[in-house]
Write a structure and sequence with these properties.
Largest interface: A-B, 22 and 22 residues
Oligomer: homodimer
Distance between the termini of chain A: 51 Å
Strand order of the largest sheet of chain A: 1-2-10-7-8-9
Radius of gyration of chain A: 19 Å
């Protein structure tokens, strides 16, 4: 029953109707985030750029859209038992916040080696920390135990139709705020954000073009697109700590079918984009939040004749949760 | 004739009708800046805060509103001769940008000791730099010479009804975006911003309360309010380099009559507020942009029973033009 409730009526785990349902469900909970523009960045990129600033979403990242859609999709009995996840990043904090708003428990399985700031963020929103060893088997074992003990519903950070539908609400807002947009550049990690954004955007404007942006040091999506199947990497190495996940079986088909290409960028390009966000846009973007700007400024993008005619580019600034010291250290490198 | 055209019909140099005229004149030129809210900052301050982010205005500060209103108020003959000012800060850059949009020259008199970044900012928007010695007599002499040579219209950074009216358009937007606001906290320097904002806000909602925020190291407005006349200081010392000007004869009467009180804060409080803007709000604010948050968090504000009932507070984040190195150094102090 749960698997069924996660599925949309169409060929993917979400579609425009589940995204519109999500929007109706969460629009009083989420911030309608602003779209910023900058003549200076337009001049540098040679395009009209529209920055959809999800760093101004509750919790500082787009994740609250999917999390709140998932939490508020549950019926009262399911909800009363709580929700559980094992992401230690923005999803966990967003889930804790959504659960707090519904008045239900949120259990977050966190490995003992997780950064203190991420643990604090989950606690700040009232999430209940459950420690695991820093291995995937331990993490899953602990999550299973909590689910058996509590009956809590597991909410995956991205491979879930409810999550994908929640993230897709970004496109409903953005294409109303800037209907002239002819291309979207979206960070890709597990694919929850880009799949929701692509499904909604293509339903609204079938001619719109969707590009993914990914770090070279974690280019599993680029490799997956090239191979025609999900590729996982033995190791990853990038400053963009929000972009380390691999595609899931619900998100991959959307990425395969609707995402035109994956632009990979170096960490140095991400750092430069973070700096431009601070200096010119006046926005604090985490590395994964700045990668869309890095992509549009990259040679890969600028020199590709296929994208020459895309003049109005929407860029999803996915989040702003970055430790100031880390930010500064990376800008100084 | 020029003095007359600068005057509104009422007792001040601007009024709600000149502000509405300014809005009609500039609304297609300026950004309607977003209003951000943060549950975390609400919790810290004990109020509902509404951040009107003029750091997202063109040129990175509210100054473009007044500058564009002044430039587009000129008749074609006046305009063709250009405009001139001797501010080297945000006003000069804003005036250069407004002049560029109208296709007329902007002359900016800058002392030879001005910081390179400010000079660059003026050049970037096409302003014509005219150097002066770093003294007020030299600056005025050079400006007079250019005016005689070119016939350019002098646009004062704040003591001008057109400037005050342009800045007042902030209130028209903000009180539409968040009509529940019952108090505004506004940075004060020469008074162009706060006088325009106060005139418009009081016309829309006579019960709204207006507070000014000022650095302790440049507290001429607090002293002026106490004395009942314009006080100028022999010297000033604050990190808030945008708040060093003294009130003018057009702005002072509005400040005297409509501004309830001036809250002064230490530089350390401003720095803490800049940090909160970065970490929690994800916004880059210059020191003068963060001073409103510093004021609402100050003991002076928090402990004053007169303001206890103000629950919905609009804070004008006036600008975001800060050198990243300077920003970081000040955060580390």
């Amino acid at each position: 029953m749960e698997a069924e409730s996660q599925m949309a009526r169409g060929k993917y785990a979400a579609d425009i109707s589940t995204i519109k349902e999500a929007h109706a469900r969460i629009k009083s909970l989420v911030h309608k985030t602003p779209v910023l523009t900058s003549e200076s960045l337009n001049a540098i990129s040679g395009r009209q750029l529209y920055f959809k600033c999800e760093c101004y979403q509750k919790g500082g990242a787009f994740k609250f859209r999917g999390a709140s859609n998932a939490v508020f999709s549950l019926d009262d009995e399911e909800a009363s038992k709580g929700v559980i996840t094992h992401s230690s990043g923005n999803h966990a904090a967003a889930l804790a916040l959504a659960a707090k708003l519904r008045g239900i428990p949120a259990y977050v399985v966190i490995p003992t080696n997780a950064p203190a700031c991420k643990v604090e963020n989950v606690k700040r929103y009232g999430g209940q920390i459950v420690w695991s060893e820093p291995t995937i088997p331990s993490r899953e074992k602990v999550a299973d135990r909590i689910m058996q003990e509590t009956g809590a519903t597991f909410i995956h950070p991205y491979n879930d139709g409810r999550i994908m539908s929640g993230q897709g609400t970004i496109s409903l807002e953005l294409l109303e705020q800037a209907p002239q947009i002819d291309m979207l550049i979206v960070p890709i990690s597990g694919g929850g954000l880009i799949s929701g954004v692509a499904l909604a955007a293509k339903a609204i404007n079938p001619a719109i073009r969707i590009l993914a942006a990914e770090p070279n040091g974690a280019d599993d999506s680029a490799k997956s697109k090239a191979a025609g199947r999900i590729i996982k990497l033995p190791e990853t190495n990038t400053i963009a700590d929000g972009l380390l996940a691999f595609l899931g079986d619900f998100t991959w088909p959307v990425v395969r079918d609707l995402v035109e290409d994956v632009i990979t960028v170096e960490d140095s390009e991400i750092i430069n984009a973070m700096k431009l966000c601070l200096e010119i846009l006046k926005v604090v973007a985490e590395p994964s939040g700045a990668i869309g700007l890095a992509a549009v400024l990259s040679d890969t993008f600028q020199k590709n004749p296929a994208w020459k005619d895309c003049k109005h580019i929407g860029i999803i600034v996915s989040g702003g949760n970055v430790d100031l010291d880390v930010l500064w250290d990376s800008l100084k490198k």
